[in-house]
Amino acid sequence: MSAVSLSTPSSAERSRQDGSSLVVEGLSVTATGAQDTTRRTLVREISFSLEPGATLALVGESGSGKSMTARAILGLLPQNVRATGSARLEDIEIVGARERELRRLRGARLSLLLQDPFTMLNPLQSAFDTVAESLPRSVRRDRPRARDEVERRLLEVGVDPTLAGRRYPFQLSGGMRQRVALAASLAKDPQVLIADEPTTALDVTTQRDILELLAQLQRTRGMSLLLITHDLAVAFSVCDQVLVLYAGSTLEHGPSAVLADEPAHPYTAMLRASSPPANHFVERLEAIPGTVPAADSVANQCAFAERCNWARPICSATYTVAQPVGEGHASACIRVDEIRPELRRLGEAAVGEVRRAATSLGSASALLEVHDLSKSYRTVSLVGKSREVEAVRGVSFRIDAGESLGLVGESGSGKTSIARCILGLSAPEAGRIRLEGTDITDYRALSRTELAQVRASVQIVFQDPYASLNPRLRIGSVLAEAVQARGVKRLDTASEVAELLQLVGLSKDYASRRPRALSGGERQRVAIARALAIQPLLLVCDEPVASLDVSVQAQILELLRDIRRQRSTSMLFITHDLAVVRQMTERVIVLYAGEIVEEGSTADVLDAPQHPYTQRLLASRLD
Amino acid sequence: MTVSPEIITESRVDRARLRRLPFLTAVALVVALAVTVAVAFGSLIAPHDPDAQDLILGASGRSAEHWLGTDDLGRDVFSRMIVGARAALLGPLVVAFVTLVIGAPLGLMAGFYGGRVDGAISRGADLIWALPALLVAIVVLGVVDGGYWLTVAVIAFLSLPHMIRLSRSATLVQARLPYIDAVRALGLSGPRIMSRHVFPNVSPTVVATVLLDFVGALIVFSSLAFLGIGFEPGSADWGTMLASGKELLFINPWLLIGPGIAIVLTAASVTLLGDWAYERLSERDA
Mind telling me how many Å the CA of B19 is from chain A's nearest CA? Predict the structure, then answer.
């Protein structure tokens, strides 16, 4: 019998008799405006039940309502947001419950683990105190017993209490912090743990460890786990059941294995197909067009209709809750019976591609040469000595004209420091950087004409599309300024701005909008257009898709590949994601703690990694 | 402060917009507009000639003819208050303007360039801040025996650090964001990046600070006038009126209460408007 039952009322009824721990039925979340006249739907009629010891993943992109659902279940909704419907933990109704009742539930029977290990721990509490505070009051009162208990709890999550117990959050790594937070949220032995993107802020290798720990604790304790994530691969790797949310609607719900092999909703199928594979190169990435809509704007239709290849007019006119399509499997697609064979083929096509490397567009002449580059940062402290952190140590590489080089590493490996040195945004301590034969190690030493030439040759696209555009300027002004930086007269920019927008797949009327009105993917397109305005020879892409919704990433990657095909721009592609490296580069450099540990052609390095670190990176992939 | 007829018509025109304002902000706006009109057209709207003496009447209490009574020379207190707004507020206005055009750019430069530029500007600002402003003003003006404009210059100079510090810290936040790196990579010059990219994004802080500096200067000017420094005795000015009013407290208390209320109400209104402007301007990017 599957651990999570299908969300039809009759089966919910049945599972409750079996003593199911958490039953959510027709739960909707709405936000009310200040005047109480405007109501916006955030989550629409979500239903599921979670039996003791079962695992369910809520999967969705930004705006899908997955976090709001979790908060509704904990009674932790923001002030102007209300939940209707029902969420019961055994026989206690949570929706509409009083704060006093909710407090008895939280921590003790329902517990929450949050995403960001950098802000969710109190910086003034040691790991020991954090866990101690969460213990049941009876244990906390008895000091010696509390100490033993905290030590046991820390050991349970793999933290050595004698080494790390007295450390403060800033002295712990991201993974350690997440372990401490996990120990704290399990301190009252809850029946249900809700983990909201518990590994999103972590490095790939750490993510794997934390997910394994989570799965292991869930099994040994026999508790239920509600995992909230944007990543289907994470969901499949940890949970038996997956519920796919999109713009507030439940699109598909079923066992992980079934969803992975035979998705019964176009969104799930396209999401699978559009995530680039790490083990082979794909000629054309299957991108889902468009962007995620606001839940409220698609409240009376299929939420995915606008972006769906199989949409018919009827899809935009009717809303249906997920209907059963198989054993414990439900889909909200009304055309599922007709299109199922096609959905299956979509999955096969993605797997059946030929294994081959990206064709090199490079020629033999070096565009950028980096020789023995070192960069360190000094941290100044009020008392005591200032410390020096070496971010980059003796790194050398070259990029040929037209070539795309991948720079792979985890946070703190020094990859962004290298990019900043190349762009003259910070100055290296030692080493040489040459661009087209010009020494650009120290931008301040360049003559005016040299500087202008260098600035026109190398550009950058940043990770965070929300911070990389000036919020006060219209898109047209942002691009016009970039065009003028090339020396074009003010009057001649309008047509070029329109061309740039077209190049990155945006219509002309975006020129009059402000960044605020754009989605993350659209902002990233504008940032790419700005970088291209100057017609650079080298484009540095610093994690350009890491902050974007999963369904939008493939679009941006495909756009960057298009640009290379059209303009043969060289690229330095900085990323932590090996699948992205496989699709975007011919050669790759693996950085670890500021040093190059492996380099070679992308296919060679990813197919037969030599260095233990590269091997570990590859082994940490979840697909 | 009494609301003059002009203001009522103006606020009626703008009623749709005012209705969306928080009540206190709307009140503050009306007060600020009334004060602005008094500064601009003081002698035109005053019911009496502020300098016309009526020695036979002398100091008197409130009456239908003289709404807030008269002072010891029989001059109309209400008219002197309206006309006195200019002398009381012109100095603070100039001070606020100076902090905007000199202090804000210095703060921007300190935050944007960092390093030695920051060191020089910030240490200079710290040095000025270490001086007790009112005391320095009293000493300088007492020694040099300068007039009104020297007072303005001294207060403006001493008000700079506040703006420099706040605009610098707001700039530090913005300068770290990728959009600034992006335009640096485009090769734009420092002054252009500061004026076109940094300034619009620190403007909420700058606007709020300008208004606070105005209020601070208003208090300092009134204190100096009360002490008889930098202002000619007998001039129509809120601080000077306060000083002369204390002797006639029992004959016409309004000589003291009127200008006192004017100072407090103006200061409170401008502070409120500063808060409101900061919130509104910050909201624009949210």
Answer: 14
